[in-house]
Write a structure and sequence with these properties.
The complex is a heterotrimer. Chain A has a domain at 67-133. Helices cover 80% and strands 0% of the residues of chain A. Chain A has helices at residues 2-7, 21-52, 54-62, 67-94, 101-131. Chain A is elongated and about 60 Å long. Chain B has helices at residues 32-42, 102-110, 130-134, 153-157, 164-175, 183-190, 204-208, 215-230, and strands spanning 2-7, 17-22, 61-64, 67-70, 83-86, 93-95, 98-99. By secondary structure, chain C is an all-alpha fold. Chain C has one domain (7-110): Fumarate reductase/succinate dehydrogenase, transmembrane subunit (3 helical TM bundles of succinate and fumarate reductases), CATH 1.20.1300.10. The chains are: A mainly alpha, B alpha+beta, C mainly alpha. Chains in contact: A-B, A-C, B-C. The interface between A and B is medium-sized, with 24 and 37 residues.
């Protein structure tokens, strides 16, 4: 029987599993966390540049107008927004707030939608200011 | 009604496959289990566990249209066709919809799911106030069906080291019991980066518990108890 | 690593993020009431002792928080000991390097 257990198949096709909204919030929390870790060296570099000269300070604040920079900024904005909101949701649940299923689902929906809204808003702002040039 | 059922025969199949069925429900059939019994009239090699047929034994847990549930209390009226039936995710498949529950029960046993109290027993019972007894509500009702652990991504990635929502709920059932005196040892056992702390509060467990329990909340209570104890 | 036993790591993750949130709130309030800092405002803040300390605390808290998070991700998905060790070492090195860089940059500002 042990041999069969080692070679036994498992059903684990994630595309065939219907994930609840909380699971979406959770995987978003993880993905955004990994993205932010990768962005950390860039943040340190941005800190250094922002102090180096006035021109660099202004350039960083201006969110350079190329579409690629706008997309990158929007992705980072999404990561910060989602990770922050999902994290606060977790902290509140640690304190027992919103742990019941109905409240947990509602807060998960809010986190998912709000973070996307932030990203879209920043993308729109970036592309619009780029197009206005 | 159309069904699509996961088939795997360890003696003849090298890989699992899905098989389609179309069976007519009987006039009094209400639940998925009723339909599954009719499938067996068409093909009696289709294998699944079942016993009480009323949602208390936990035998017929399976993945129904992507979510875990008990076949015997899953109303047919709630199901979109084709009804896709697969075994509990992440568990080794023995045959068709039957999974190996050895690891799952090993985790259950590892939390010592019995009352530990070495004080000499009183003449009658160990008294509990109504409030003490209420603390066990939402914990003692677990039927160990494994719908929760079978839907927990953390359990999928580390089924051998993470105790899982069912085991942890039972662990808390005894931590919360006013008559139990082994709280410190129980918490020490769980204070481990794998045993308890793989839980990310995804809450998939609470979403699928057929008894309406909340393993995620029980786990939060364990963490809270640990913090209170160390402060 | 016994020092990072379950509860300790979990608490470290929570406590470090509380510090991050407080610092973010302080920064956010400042931007709300005195918007658009000029380059000189920013430089004088980063060159001041209290400003530099706040920025270093922010990055330090983020680094600790990120460490516990990264470790959780690695423990979930990577079972092979050598691979796991390599990835964790890489992440730890990066986090220490980032914190040191911030310290040097700000130290240079104050000097």
């Amino acid at each position: 029987m042990t041999r069969q257990r080692d070679t036994a198949p498992k059903f684990l096709n994630l595309f065939e599993i219907r994930f609840p909204v909380g699971a979406i919030a959770s995987i978003g929390h993880r993905i955004s966390g990994v993205l932010l870790i990768l962005a950390l060296p860039l943040a340190a570099q941005a800190l250094e540049r922002s102090l180096h000269s006035e021109a660099e300070f202004r350039a960083l604040l201006a969110m350079r107008a190329s579409p690629w920079a706008s997309i990158a900024t929007a992705v980072v904005a999404w990561a910060i927004a989602h990770h922050l909101l999902a994290g606060i949701r977790h902290l509140l649940m640690d304190l027992g707030v919103g742990h019941r299923l109905a409240a947990a689902r509602a807060s998960a929906w809010f986190v998912n939608v709000a973070a996307l809204a932030v990203a879209i808003a920043i993308l729109a702002a970036g592309l619009w200011s780029g197009g206005a040039r | 009604m159309k069904l699509r059922i996961y088939r795997f025969d360890p003696d003849t199949d090298s890989r699992p496959r899905m098989q389609d069925f179309d069976v007519q429900p009987g006039p009094t059939d209400r639940m998925l289990l009723d339909l599954l019994m009719r499938v067996r009239q068409v093909d009696d090699s289709v294998s699944f566990r079942r016993s009480c047929r009323e949602g208390v034994c936990g035998s017929d847990a399976m993945n129904i249209n992507g979510r875990n549930g008990l076949a015997c209390i899953q109303p047919l009226a709630s199901l979109k066709e084709p009804v896709v039936l697969r075994p509990l995710p992440g568990f080794p498949v023995v045959r068709d919809l039957i999974v190996d529950m050895t690891q799952f029960f090993a985790h259950y046993h590892s939390v010592r799911p019995w009352l530990i109290n070495d004080q000499p027993p009183p003449e009658r019972e160990r008294l509990q106030s109504p409030a003490d007894r209420e603390a066990l509500d939402g914990l003692y009702e677990c039927i160990l069906c494994a719908c929760c652990s079978g839907f927990c991504p953390s359990y999928w990635w580390n089924p051998d080291k993470f105790v899982g929502p069912a085991g942890l709920l039972q662990a808390y059932r005894f931590i919360a019991d006013s008559r139990d005196t082994a709280t410190a040892e129980r918490l020490d056992f769980l204070d481990d980066v794998y045993r308890l702390y793989r839980c990310r509060t995804i809450m998939n467990c609470t979403e699928v518990c057929p008894k309406g329990l909340s393993p995620s909340h029980a786990i939060e209570r364990i963490r809270r108890t640990m913090v209170e104890r160390s402060s | 690593m016994r020092v990072f036993s379950g509860q300790r790591a979990w608490l470290l993750q929570r406590v470090s993020v509380l510090l991050v949130l407080v610092l973010l709130a302080v920064g956010g309030l400042r931007l709300l009431f005195w918007p658009a800092p000029s380059y000189e405002d920013w430089r004088s803040f980063a060159s001041s002792a209290h400003g530099a300390v706040l920025i270093v605390l922010f990055f330090g808290a983020v680094a600790l928080h990120a460490w516990v998070g990264a470790r959780d991700v690695v423990l979930d998905y990577l079972q092979h000991r050598a691979v796991r060790f390599a990835v964790l070492l890489l992440v730890a090195t990066m986090l220490v390097a980032v914190t040191l860089r911030v310290l040097f940059v700000l130290g240079g500002q104050i000097a």
